């Protein structure tokens, strides 16, 4: 029955997204459309749950969505690392440097994905991007995040600092299907819901751009003959026009 339960929960999740997040999806699409029409860029920063891979270089996807990835590594094996060495990694100052070293510009849109929304990085990225003049859209679980304490110095969670919030409608702890025998749940909602919301946004953005007389750069499957050349031309057009 767990499989059947999953499909039932999935249907209810999609229904909630369509009916509860419709206005936010439209608002996100409008902000993205405006940015694209003005020649600005769309950045996606994700903490690891699908956003910056699902939308990037996909058949039927748009060239406009670009991943923002920040890598920071230190290697110094002079002694054994203390067990609590990773607990005091407050990167708030580092994030200010990283974003200023990136291609983020005023008028751009930054989509920040974090299911819990409590960690330092997504909150600080959102705050810093807003200071730099970007429009910040959060993808998070409001129900889950509301129960958690922020790790950021401001005491704010992601949904409290973004310009617009997309609630992925994931339950607290994320998983949808309960296993009574184990007192646990399986099948997380956040990845599926994030993908659903973002593809809905893309559909609305494409519609908006066409209404403005702007051809969106939509990619074809690289596995179909001729698609490679077509995609190269579309990506070149995006580089030249920002559309």
From TrEMBL:
Give the SIS domain ranges. Answer: 32-211
Can you supply a Gene Ontology BP term from the record?
carbohydrate derivative metabolic process
> What InterPro entries does its record include?
SIS_dom, SIS_dom_sf
Q: Superkingdom of this entry's organism?
A: Bacteria
Keyword Isomerase included in the entry's annotation? yes
PROSITE patterns, sorted: SIS
Isomerase found in the keyword field: yes
Q: Write the record's keywords in alphabetical order, separated by commas.
A: Isomerase
Which GO MF terms are attached to this record?
carbohydrate derivative binding; isomerase activity
Q: Pfam families, alphabetically?
A: SIS_2
- The name this protein goes by in its record: Sugar isomerase domain-containing protein
Q: Which organism is it from?
A: Paenibacillus psychroresistens
